[in-house]
Automatic annotation (TrEMBL):
Domain Cytochrome oxidase subunit II copper A binding: 127-239
UniProt keyword annotations, A-Z: Cell membrane, Electron transport, Lipoprotein, Membrane, Oxidoreductase, Palmitate, Respiratory chain, Signal, Transmembrane, Transmembrane helix, Transport
Annotated PANTHER family: CYTOCHROME BO(3) UBIQUINOL OXIDASE SUBUNIT 2 (PTHR22888:SF18), CYTOCHROME C OXIDASE, SUBUNIT II (PTHR22888)
Name the UniProt record assigns to this protein: Ubiquinol oxidase polypeptide II
UniProt family annotation: Belongs to the cytochrome c oxidase subunit 2 family.
Subcellular location field: Cell membrane
UniProt keyword annotation of Amino-acid biosynthesis present: no
Organism expressing this protein natively: Paracoccus acridae
Cytochrome oxidase subunit II transmembrane region profile domain residues: 16-113
Length: 395
């Protein structure tokens, strides 16, 4: 008996697992519940093959062991049509079923797809989703509520049974936003905007985290997601509005600096253009937004003159420098047209002995595109102050 209990002693730590919550298989949101159903259904389909194979492996090893003289010995056997049919047909049917299940689930649970129901019995009808803008930083999460005019760090609050639309971006490296009890995971990337829809069906406090390694402070990128009733959410918003700390561009640039294990904090009011500027990488003063660059490209582009008018962004306290295509971080401060550059190059053909003019080029009367982030973000006359080290001014 003592020997029997010694054999079972390795099972002693198993009761400790009773304190673990299988949140992925028992979520509190409809989208996460449907994902759990998809996971269980796919697993059961695969077990139709896995379980018989594992069982037959043990049975064959026992049946055809060397000491079993009762087993049939047939060294010349090499083919069975019936056996081949079973071996190939059943797995093929399982693959077809898995493919159909995955195709349907992928479209129904697309993170960009607006919710069609609150739960299995309640359709969405005309209920508008709550807008939450999410910024993944080093190493914390910023949540902006544009409709309520408040923001929070490492703390999320949403109403129960109301669809939530997350729009996400990042400041420096790719990250992954994940609330297992609410919805699936989605990536947040700098210079891009992704979307995730979800809903909570049960009130409570849930865990949110970064599920993609992003550097030294990654382990501290966790936050509490509060699912509240209507009155509780209004109270949380009112409390955030009384924080007394404004989240403008200057405060954001301070918040953007890398920090670890940041305690929850709230802000109000919030710059209404802040999230758009974060996505377009132009929170810093004097930096051209990506939307402006794309607007210029849509109008024909700037050509090579844009390369000849850059200055290194190296001042302290200007936020996180963002390298482009492996080059040192830079910002555009002067633009000249292609015609101006051609006239400058054609105005004189310097002799080989004449040193090249390295003075900076200067833009003249180049209008900014309209309607970018609601207004012009750069002046009509841009000039360059300092050329980058090693840059050829006569490109």
């Amino acid at each position: 008996m003592t020997h029997f209990f010694k054999r079972l002693s390795w099972l002693a730590p198993l009761p400790l697992l009773a304190g673990c919550e299988a949140v992925v298989l028992r979520p509190s949101g409809d989208i996460a519940a449907r994902q759990a159903e998809l996971l269980v259904q796919s697993t059961l389909l695969m077990l139709i093959i896995i379980v018989p194979v594992m069982a037959l492996t043990v049975w064959f090893a026992w049946r055809y062991r060397a000491s079993n003289r009762q087993a049939t010995y047939n060294p010349d056997w090499d083919h069975s049509t019936k056996l081949e049919l079973v071996i190939w047909a059943i797995p093929l049917l399982i693959i077809v079923c898995l493919g159909a299940l995955t195709w349907v689930g992928t479209h129904l649970l697309d993170p960009y797809r607006p919710l069609d129901r609150i739960d299995a019995q309640t359709p969405v009808s005309n209920q508008q989703p709550l807008q939450v803008q999410v910024v993944a930083m080093d190493w914390k999460w910023l949540f902006i509520y544009p409709e309520q005019g408040v923001a929070s760090v490492n703390e999320l609050a949403v109403p129960v049974d109301r669809p939530v639309q997350f729009t996400l971006t990042a400041t420096s490296v790719m990250n992954a936003f994940y609330i297992p009890a609410m919805a699936g995971m989605i990536y947040a990337m700098p210079g891009m905007q992704t979307t995730l829809h979800g809903v909570f069906n049960e009130a409570g406090e849930y865990q949110g985290l970064a599920s993609h390694y992003s550097g030294h402070g990654f382990s501290g990128m966790r936050f509490k997601a509060h699912a509240l009733d209507g009155a509780g959410f209004d109270s949380w918003v009112a409390q955030a509005a009384d924080s007394g700390e404004t989240l403008d561009r200057a405060r954001y640039l301070e918040l953007e600096k890398p920090s670890e294990n940041v305690a929850p904090m709230a802000f109000a009011p919030v710059d209404p253009q802040l999230f758009s500027r974060v996505v377009n990488m132009c929170v810093e003063d004097g930096r051209m937004c990506m939307a402006e660059m794309m607007a210029y490209d849509a109008q024909g582009g700037l050509g090579l003159p844009g390369i000849a008018n850059v200055t290194v962004l190296a001042e302290a306290g200007r936020g996180t420098p963002r390298p482009v295509l492996g080059l040192p971080p830079f910002q555009v401060t002067g633009i000249c047209t292609v015609e101006e550059l051609d006239r400058m190059l054609a105005s004189a053909a310097p002799a080989e002995s004449t040193p090249r003019d390295m003075s900076p080029l200067r833009g003249r009367a180049l209008e900014a595109p309209q309607g970018i982030l609601g207004r012009n973000l750069i002046p009509n006359r841009l000039t360059q102050t300092t050329p980058p080290a090693g840059a050829d001014q006569n490109l």
